[in-house]
Amino acid sequence: xxxxxxxxxxxxxxxxxxxxxxxxxxxxxxxxxxxxxxxxxxxxxxxxxxxxxxxxxxxxxxxxxxxxxxxxxxxxxxxxxxxxxxxxxxxxxxxxxxxxxxxxxxxxxxxxxxxxxxxxxxxxxxxxxxxxxxxxxxxxxxxxxxxxxxxxxxxxxxxxxxxxxxxxxxxxxxxxxxxxxxxxxxxxxxxxxxxxxxxxxxxxxxxxxxxxxxxxxxxxxxxxxxxxxxxxxxxxxxxxxxxxxxxxxxxxxxxxxxxxxxxxxxxxxxxxxxxxxxxxxxxxxxxxxxxxxxxxxxxxxxxxxxxxxxxxxxxxxxxxxxxxxxxxxxxxxxxxxxxxxxxxxxxxxxxxxxxxxxxxxxxxxxxxxxxxxxxxxxxxxxxxxxxxxxxxxxxxxxxxxxxxxxxxxxxxxxxxxxxxxxxxxxxxxxxxxxx
Amino acid sequence: xxxxxxxxxxxxxxxxxxxxxxxxxxxxxxxxxxxxxxxxxxxxxxxxxxxxxxxxxxxxxxxxxxxxxxxxxxxxxxxxxxxxxxxxxxxxxxxxxxxxxxxxxxxxxxxxxxxxxxxxxxxxxxxxxxxxxxxxxxxxxxxxxxxxxxxxxxxxxxxxxxxxxxxxxxxxxxxxxxxxxxxxxxxxxxxxxxxxxxxxxxxxxxxxxxxxxxxxxxxxxxxxxxxxxxxxxxxxxxxxxxxxxxxxxxxxxxxxxxxxxxxxxxxxxxxxxxxxxxxxxxxxxxxxxxxxxxxxxxxxxxxxxxxxxxxxxxxxxxxxxxxxxxxxxxxxxxxxxxxxxxxxxxxxxxxxxxxxxxxxxxxxxxxxxxxxxxxxxxxxxxxxxxxxxxxxxxxxxxxxxxxxxxxxxxxxxxxxxxxxxxxxxxxxxxxxxxx
Amino acid sequence: xxxxxxxxxxxxxxxxxxxxxxxxxxxxxxxxxxxxxxxxxxxxxxxxxxxxxxxxxxxxxxxxxxxxxxxxxxxxxxxxxxxxxxxxxxxxxxxxxxxxxxxxxxxxxxxxxxxxxxxxxxxxxxxxxxxxxxxxxxxxxxxxxxxxxxxxxxxxxxxxxxxxxxxxxxxxxxxxxxxxxxxxxxxxxxxxxxxxxxxxxxxxxxxxxxxxxxxxxxxxxxxxxxxxxxxxxxxxxxxxxxxxxxxxxxxxxxxxxxxxxxxxxxxxxxxxxxxxxxxxxxxxxxxxxxxxxxxxxxxxxxxxxxxxxxxxxxxxxxxxxxxxxxxxxxxxxxxxxxxxxxxxxxxxxxxxxxxxxxxxxxxxxxxxxxxxxxxxxxxxxxxxxxxxxxxxxxxxxxxxxxxxxxxxxxxxxxxxxxxxxxxxxxxxxxxxxxx
Lengths: 435, 435, 435
Fold this sequence. Notes:
3 copies of one chain form a homotrimer.
Chain A (H helix, E strand, L loop, with lengths): L13 E6 L10 H6 L10 E5 L9 H15 L6 E2 L10 H15 L11 E4 L5 H17 L8 E6 L2 H6 L3 H4 L10 E6 L1 H8 L12 H14 L2 E4 L8 H12 L5 E4 L2 H9 L8 E6 L2 E4 L1 E3 L2 E4 L4 E7 L2 E6 L2 E5 L1 H11 E4 L2 H16 L5 E11 L2 E11 L1 H20 L4 H8 L1 H9 L3
Parallel strand pairs in A: 1-2, 1-8, 2-3, 4-5, 5-6, 6-7, 7-8, 12-17
Antiparallel strand pairs in A: 9-10, 9-16, 11-12, 13-14, 14-15, 17-18
Helix pairs in contact in A: 3-4, 12-13, 14-15
């Protein structure tokens, strides 16, 4: 039996939290009122009215009432899923009981919210037995109100060493008849509290990057048919840093990320989708520089690499403080090593279609050629590179396309923005390829 | 139930090993004689008379006698804990039996040492069943001499793939009634033998850095309420390398490290505590340079970054071989990206106190501002950065303070040195904050 | 009981796959015909006629016949082990049944191939219960034909999150009486399909490097007495990249690697063995440059480091854009930090012999000195460094020597090439040392 995903969305790009009750405002529900009305790229795939850390302890009962009234009013129209975060703590039974009572209240059909609630987020879980305690409360809530068992999905925040270890047990535990852990949906890393639990410290007080935690979360999601989401990126003004974190996450198979603001939601909804235009990267020292494209040529205008020509046999290429004297072929070969191509959505769809045609014609592998004219210090050089595509390459290319198709299917409110980005033709072909 | 730590110290900075019997000396106990008399920053948190690898096999029976006589004489006065390392091997029953006999001898109350012995260190453990064999010998020793069961703590050296895997089982196994694994204390990585067991090789013969092992050890400690300690750093002259390793370890939540010499003990006792003065780091290329502070200004005098001014709208900033032309605001924003502040103990205590006052006044989050005047090539620029502090930031800042408080409580012999370092006022406030 | 390896070879450097049946060729067995006749450094330690991904689905029945005829003809003479790869998939029972039928056919003694078959490779395994299904088919095949139970070894391709998790269970599962998992041999990472299963993505479409997977595979091998092998390196023209990957793998204890071509086999058979001559590395910025040796001096002729002398107290050393003014001793000390020595096979054998002699004379640790004359911009500087050798250093140095001895014992077809490389004297001493 394959790993089945017991939920609608195959991918989640964005996990956006909003405080449920803010003190000192005319309307304490202000933040979730406005969040509930986000649409398009500003609206997250999963919206989390946050009745835990984002909301002061004294405001949490009021937060529950706010969730109910806002979701009852706006839930039907909200384009993403809705998963309020409850209070919970592996070491505090009274907190767990409070979370249970809040769930009972929100899920009461008389309150008119539960039909728009997709599930709840449980923070601060411990080992697998603690996850089962939360699951049991979901089951009781469902039975109390005649909801189908397992219909409320459960997402957890992994923010302790114990919970990280539990990620290895999910696949075996989820099948047991004494629980309903098949309701699991998102595995979300919570690096702030995880750092505290692990006693991690850095000189500047920044959070450690915890690569192994993110790997283990992604692997746990893969093995149990769930979805992995990275934790919050605190410096909301550092867009570049947020993007780099997402690139690093995707190389670990973790495609979703927490968002703290609608601007972060836009970034995180957009970034994992292939770019509208392809681009060449030039690696100089440690950094990859994206070359600027003008009239079909790719231009480097930084200072880390310089190039001058004496004659066809004598090119001087200076990279940092290293100087190479090269003939034209050696120059090409050196530049090929220093460059890489980032394919656009159009490029990926093209290559996949080409491979599908070749496969139909009985070929198992074909070469895809990528060529470009680079311009460095005014010197033009044509480069060309082949990549072999076989079934495995094709399948790997399918990951961003599958993501796109999932977004296109579930987020009709983003269709206009996607067509603005890619053009109607590319969007159309991208929804067809690979099926 | 929370993860409880079954021992006195919440933190261990230093794990210092000394050979128990050296051949060819007048007094074969010379090394442990002098180690037992270390005080203050030169004395480790955990002292390990090492009857395994540091002592020749032929000298190990004599080593046991030396441990007994030295600990009986100096143990009462020694300011840290005392945990002799016994012989043990997951693949050699005779070695295990020898280790058991040595423990019986050292723990015999007639010999006058055991009242100063806090536990034993067991090297070369295998999977969890092997740890249980060692634990059973501890239990027998305790019962033989009427000591309380569990009173001798057990620390292990993780130096095999099997032992690394066992780190994931500890939390579940420690609760079982058929063992006394609650006696566990330190999880210490032993990278030399681990490299052999894993067949790790590097071109120069240096040890691999094994980041995943250190993560797994730290996580195992977190999940089971134990303390993680990194292995020996062989190049005892490379102080800078030792410090860098400790910074890397702390970002993994591994605060303790092995020390081979009293100089390393001083480094490792000092390094994890916050610095006495704050400093600004400037990142140029790959390296962080600590700026020199003179008259309240922070001065960069390296060659990797240069700065010149034409007028307020035209600053030339050269970083490596990249040149930027910037106006004053762009320059500030560029420098903010390149700099980071390392807070002092005083800074941390200040911020925590400020947050505690804000919380009492009903605020959940406040901005802490950090400003400085940088000087690069004689050009002065004022920069200023805000950081939002909420409950989670506060809790994370608590880790180094909790370490300090633990040191202050358990190491009265270091009080003078700590007051010399920080001043009596900061020490006093640091012991109060957060409680 | 120690971890016993249930197979002949202690090390496997190379895992070379060949398509079993190619469409459109006169002889569809052409590729395995030529692979079966490779000898010396071009012949892999483990040869894998690949009836899975390298062979089109429609050709796989013919592939089985080709395996049988080629192995029956050439198997007796082939210098490495032979492990055909069968079809298998954790989520597809019909694929598993097809793999079983192919194994029954190949192992039928009437077909004359099985006496030269060492085992089978099973791809796309899932969790440990899926491994047991494959193992059960091996057992049935063995019993059907009167082969000894466990005589056919089983290697797996780890290419899913579930299989990665299973690596932690092997040691406990292999001892159970209800399976024959002691037949396990190689744990091979398959990063292409693993990336798909984990949903890993990179901007350029390159594979993520998956460091944690490789660690976990290597650790699983260490804990269960098996051998870890890294997956294919697709860019077969990038020899430098292939070598760098192997260096990174060895630092993780993963000594074997997949090879796609005989040229990659030569590289992967050679690279893990110590070099024939030692060399000095100079670290400048991020890169280690191997110094060129001429007349016993080690010459740096790059542009990243420059050196000039005013007088004995004034040397200008420029590294990147940092300039140091140093006296002769400071210069030596600075250069020592920037250099490292890569020992040759001869150096390693020398040091081990020297340590063995010292140990016999009752010494536990001795200093090994390494000295050299460096030449930078025409300036000569003598440097000298000591390294302490103790039993642990000696044991760690044994890893490459044990590899060499294993190769020498099992690959007599490579003796000539090894003597050409190292000289007969070094080869002879290297086969003796450490025993």
